[in-house]
Each structure stands twice: as structure tokens, then as C-alpha cells.
């Protein structure tokens, strides 16, 4: 009869070394670009329609990690520049209208083009300290949709979003001291009286 030798024992230390070699490394960032569309999925805090994106991407770009970081820095600086210009414009308007207490035709006529780039110092600002996902005003969202080729903005969404915002302002019921289940909106909705 043949004598079989027991299987060679593997060291726990060797197994840990093997696991360490299987690290995941990221060397590339893939960015998918989508055309803008009317959203129908979010509720902007201000009026108007929401922003969304097309079902399929229209382009793809690959970056190294370094290239992507540089691209983000450039984009964030541009967003910051626009934000600072808007703040400067608002400050000019406030100065001309004495903090909004006096009407001024000059203030009403001011636009972002009236704010010089020389008045904006983005280079000495730490870009990472700013938060970039800010709500967009209604006019800006509409302009973005038009620039993206959306010719007909669905007006029904505007009314639906308004109704949702109004419903969020009301929470609970009108009960005071005691709950009358027949008159309580919460009770009728099958939830605990708020």
C-alpha cells in the first residue's frame, strides 16, 4: 500500500502576506457626461422646474487621478469666481439702494458683466473650503435647460413641485390638548397624532 503524506501546512503568516499583495489600486477616473433634461425627480427649494439628465450618456472621458484632481480644481475655481462675482454684484446693488431701502435705476440695471474680474481674487482663496453644490435660482435652471436644447418645459411639473413644497410646510394636525380621531388628519391618515 502506498503511504500518502499529509498535506503541507500553510503558514498563517504567508497567507497574510498573500492577502496584502491583492490591494485594489485606483489609477484612473472615468467620467460619464449626460445631456440635461427636465428632472421630474427632485423638488427644488425655489420655484420652477427641476433639472435632470438624459437616460444615456453622450460622452465618456478618462483621467488619471492627477488629471482629474487638476480638472476639479479648475472647475471649482470657475464656480467660485462666478459665486464671488454674484456676491460682489449683490453688494454693489445694496450700496446703491442703501441696503434695499431706496429704489435705484442704476442698481436695477447692474449685471454680472458690470463686476470686473480684477475685483475678484480667486487665487488667494482655498477652493476646497467652499461647498459647490448650491441650489440654482429658477431663471438659471430654465436657462440651463434651454441651452441644453430643451424647447418645451413642462409647466405641470412647476405646479406639482409647488404643491409638494406647500405640503411639506404643513406637518401634523390641528389638535390641541386632546385628539379627536374624527377631526384629526393624522388619525385619518392612520398615523399617531402629531
From TrEMBL:
Cell location: Nucleus
Any one Gene Ontology BP term: apoptotic process
Keyword Cytoplasm attached: no
CC per GO annotation: nucleus
Pfam families hit by this protein: CSRNP_N
Domain of life per record: Eukaryota
GO molecular function annotation: DNA-binding transcription factor activity, RNA polymerase II-specific; sequence-specific DNA binding
The Cysteine/serine-rich nuclear protein N-terminal domain, residue ranges: 20-194
UniProt keyword Nucleus present: yes
Key words, A-Z: Activator, Apoptosis, DNA-binding, Nucleus, Transcription, Transcription regulation
Family to which the UniProt record says this protein belongs: Belongs to the AXUD1 family.
Entry protein name: CSRN2 protein
Amino acid at each position: 500500500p502506498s503511504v500518502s503524506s499529509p498535506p503541507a501546512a500553510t503558514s498563517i503568516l504567508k497567507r497574510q502576506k498573500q492577502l496584502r499583495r491583492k490591494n485594489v489600486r485606483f489609477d484612473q477616473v472615468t467620467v460619464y457626461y449626460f445631456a440635461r433634461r427636465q428632472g421630474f425627480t427632485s423638488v427644488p427649494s425655489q420655484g420652477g422646474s427641476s433639472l435632470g439628465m438624459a437616460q444615456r450618456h453622450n460622452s465618456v472621458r478618462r483621467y488619471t487621478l492627477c488629471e482629474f484632481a487638476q480638472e476639479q480644481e479648475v472647475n471649482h475655481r470657475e464656480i467660485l469666481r462666478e459665486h464671488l462675482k454674484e456676491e460682489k454684484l449683490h453688494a454693489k446693488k445694496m450700496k446703491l439702494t442703501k441696503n434695499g431701502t431706496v429704489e435705484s435705476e442704476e442698481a436695477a440695471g447692474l449685471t454680472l458683466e458690470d463686476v470686473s474680474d480684477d475685483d475678484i481674487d480667486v487665487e488667494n482663496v482655498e477652493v476646497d473650503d467652499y461647498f459647490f453644490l448650491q441650489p440654482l435660482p429658477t431663471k438659471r435652471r430654465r436657462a440651463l435647460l434651454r441651452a441644453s436644447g430643451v424647447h418645451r418645459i413642462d409647466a405641470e411639473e412647476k405646479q406639482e413641485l409647488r404643491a409638494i413644497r406647500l405640503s411639506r410646510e404643513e406637518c401634523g394636525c390641528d389638535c390641541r390638548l386632546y385628539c379627536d380621531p374624527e377631526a384629526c388628519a393624522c388619525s385619518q391618515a392612520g398615523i399617531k397624532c402629531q
